[in-house]
Structure formats: C-alpha cells, structure tokens
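stage 2 :: seqdesign
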C-alpha cells in the first residue's frame, strides 16, 4: 500500500524546477525579515547592557521572558500564514484576514495573562529568575510593560504573516526591516530625551508598531484583501489549536531543553558553561537559514494548485531538503575552519573561547544534518502538520536530554558537543524517513 502511494505521488508531483525557484525566492525574502528580527534582538541586549548596573538584571531576564512572548507571536504568525495561504489556494484571497480578529484576541489574552500572572505571583517568578530584591521593582515593571506593549505588536506581526501566506514575501520582509530600524531609532531617541532607561525598549518600539501596522494595512488594501468582520470564528479557533499551539509549544520546548543542557553542565564550572553557551548561540543564529528555507517551501506548496495535496507535500519536502543542504555545507565548513577567529571575536575570555572552539570541532561537521532537519520541521509546521512536527521534536529532545543526564562522570562541554553531533546525524536520518512516511501516508 505504501509502495503504491509513493509511486502515485511520484507520478503526480509538480515540476521540481519551478517549485525550487518559487521556494528559493520566498526563502530569500523571508531570510531578510528574520535577519532583521535578529538584529533587533541583538541590539536590544547590547542596549540594555550599556545602561549601567541597574539594567543588568533586566538584561538577564530579557531572553527567558522574550521566549514566552516569542512563543505566543510565532504560534499566531504560523497559523495566520497557513490560513491565508489556504484561502489564496482556494480562490479566497480577499478573505485572507478572516481569522485574524480571533487570532489577535487569543494572542492579546495570553499576553495580558502573562502580565497578570507576573504581577500576582511576582515573588516566586522573580525568585525563579534569580533577581535580587533591590532590583525586583524595576524588573517587574519591565516585564509587565513588555507584555502589554507586545499586544499592540501583534498587529504588524499578523499582517505580515498574511502577506507571506499570500505569497507577498518581499513586502513582508521590507516591512520587517522597517520595523527594526524604527524600533531602534525610537528607543534611542526616547532614552536620550527622557532618560527612561530600560522602559525605553518596550515603549520606544510603539511608534514603529503604529507606523508599520498602518503600512501593512495599506499594502493589504492594495492587494485587494477585504477587512475582516470583528467577530469570533470557530474555524480560526481550530486553526490555532492545530497550527499555532504546537509551534508555541516547540519554542517553549527549546527553552526548556537549553536549561536542561546547562543543568547537566553546572558542575563543570562557569568556563565550560560560557563556552558551550557561546557555541549554542552561534548555532542558534544559523537557524534562520533553515527556517527561511522551510517556510519558503511551505508557502510555495500551499499556493500550488492541485488536488493531490499528498504529492505536492512530498515534493515540497524534497525541495526543502534540497535547498537547505548547500548553505549548511558552506556554513559548517566555515565554522570548522574559522572556529578560532569566530570565538575570539565573540568573547575576550580566552578559556571560554577555547571551549567554544572545541564545541565547533564536533558540531560544525554535522551542521548540514542540523540544517536539513530544521528545514524539514519548519516545512511540516507550515503545511498544516505542526502537531506532527511538535511530537517529533518532543521525542528527539527527550532522548537527547536523557542521554545527556546518563553520560557517566563529570560532564564537560566537549561531551555535550559529541552528543549533539551524534544527535544531529541520527536525528536527521530518523526525521527524514519519519516525515516522508507521514506525508505520503496522509
């Protein structure tokens, strides 16, 4: 039965050259937007670090708190993108915004709930984050303000998600770049004029939110997308559960796994932890290429007309893999050959740089498998198989964490790097066969 499915899919799949071209074009535009987002995050951390001792605790909690906000926004954006793409494929591009009011209401509710929980349980939350008593008021105000400001930020995020789903990845990317530039400018000006300190980060970005939100509305109007009715939509609620929730869960899973690895390393000392974290940070930055490729392939397939979705999904899976491997071969070779200069440029701590360089000795040669796996997972998430992608992630990371805790004796960064290199290879092989089987069976 499976053999018949494979043969049928192979006969019906669309010409790969045209799909590769459209997926590649979408991926380049999406990559531009993702890089703009990374620049904004990196600049924000650097800005907080230059505000003085009073901002150090805020900077330390920015990443874990930001992960919670990111989990909500990315889950909503993926659901919006897939919903808009399906509407376009079915000839209903004008109704691509239909689900957005429901998505916004749910996202806003979750962000407000986050702010309320932090306010009500501030003691336990701030203790868990390791915030000193003297800095708790500043950190508390920052977290609440960031969550509330992110509610308004959902408007441009969801709007650009609709644009990507409709295939307008170029305008969406340039709007992302504009948002980054305006956010940085707004934060700098607000801090310079008012001396607002850490609160300049969430408040300074509000003008960018308003300007880019208005620009998104203009672009959508020019693309002849109708305004949605301001009412709840049961279909949108189901889309959130099937598409958005697994993506949000994946981001929270990644955060949990990172803390797990650091827990394994805690007895090795601060140098090992710092070097390992540095290597993980670099690999995390390189994730954007695979995410862009997977997303580009998913958009190209979603917009592709055709009754045999199974054949199209299978072709897109191959496209995502084919487009992801060359860049990660180059990135892996560069990370291995230039590991010394790279780590020296990122830290002045020679011992930590040496640990990070040792990390790349093992991980860099397997980056091609890491990139291929991430591209496949991103693709699955955005063709409506987010639940499957989440379950595959859960199984993989559960095995990896269990293996890390079972390593005998004191564990150092080199031990974890070897484990991750092996996991990249084995994970890729198992993911490819699992994903291919699941796509062809359903």
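stage 2 :: out
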């Amino acid at each position: 039965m499976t053999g018949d499915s494979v043969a049928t899919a192979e006969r019906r799949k669309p010409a790969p050259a045209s799909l590769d071209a459209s997926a590649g074009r979408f991926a380049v535009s999406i990559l531009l937007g993702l890089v703009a987002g990374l620049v904004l995050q990196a600049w924000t951390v650097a800005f907080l670090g230059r505000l003085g001792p009073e901002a150090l605790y805020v900077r330390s909690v920015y990443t874990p708190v930001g992960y919670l906000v990111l989990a909500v926004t990315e889950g909503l954006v993926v659901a919006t993108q897939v919903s808009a793409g399906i509407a376009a494929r079915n000839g209903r591009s004008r109704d691509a915004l239909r689900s957005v009011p429901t998505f916004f209401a749910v996202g806003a509710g979750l962000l407000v709930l986050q702010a309320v929980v932090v306010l009500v349980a501030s003691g336990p939350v701030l203790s868990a984050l390791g915030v000193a008593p003297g800095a708790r008021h500043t950190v508390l105000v920052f977290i609440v303000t960031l969550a509330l400001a992110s509610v308004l930020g959902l408007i441009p995020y969801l709007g650009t998600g609709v644009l990507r789903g409709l295939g307008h990845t170029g305008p969406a990317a340039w709007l992302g770049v504009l948002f980054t530039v305006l956010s940085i400018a707004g934060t700098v000006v607000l801090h310079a004029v008012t001396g607002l300190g850490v609160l300049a980060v969430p408040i300074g970005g509000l003008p960018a939110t308003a300007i880019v939100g208005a620009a998104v509305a203009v672009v959508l109007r020019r693309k002849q997308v109708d305004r949605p009715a301001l009412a709840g939509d049961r279909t949108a609620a189901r889309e959130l559960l099937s598409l958005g929730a697994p993506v949000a869960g994946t981001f929270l899973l990644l955060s949990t796994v990172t803390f797990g690895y650091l827990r394994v390393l805690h007895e090795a000392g601060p140098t090992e932890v710092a070097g390992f974290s540095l290597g993980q940070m670099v690999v995390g930055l390189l994730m954007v290429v695979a995410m862009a490729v997977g997303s580009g392939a998913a958009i190209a397939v979603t917009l592709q007309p055709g009754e045999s979705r199974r054949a199209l999904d299978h072709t897109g899976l191959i496209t995502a893999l084919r487009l992801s491997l060359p860049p990660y071969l180059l990135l892996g070779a560069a990370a291995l050959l230039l590991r010394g200069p790279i780590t020296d440029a990122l830290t002045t701590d020679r011992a930590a740089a040496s640990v990070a360089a040792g990390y790349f000795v093992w991980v860099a040669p397997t980056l091609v498998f890491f990139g291929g796996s991430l591209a496949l997972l991103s693709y699955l998430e955005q063709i409506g198989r987010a639940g499957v992608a989440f379950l595959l992630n859960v199984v993989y990371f559960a095995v990896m964490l269990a293996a890390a805790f079972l390593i005998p004796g004191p564990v150092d960064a080199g031990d974890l790097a070897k484990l991750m290199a092996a996991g990249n290879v084995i994970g890729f092989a198992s993911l490819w066969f699992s994903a291919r089987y699941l796509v062809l069976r359903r």
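stage 3 :: structure notes
- The mean pLDDT is 84.
- The chain has two domains: 1-28+269-442, 51-249.
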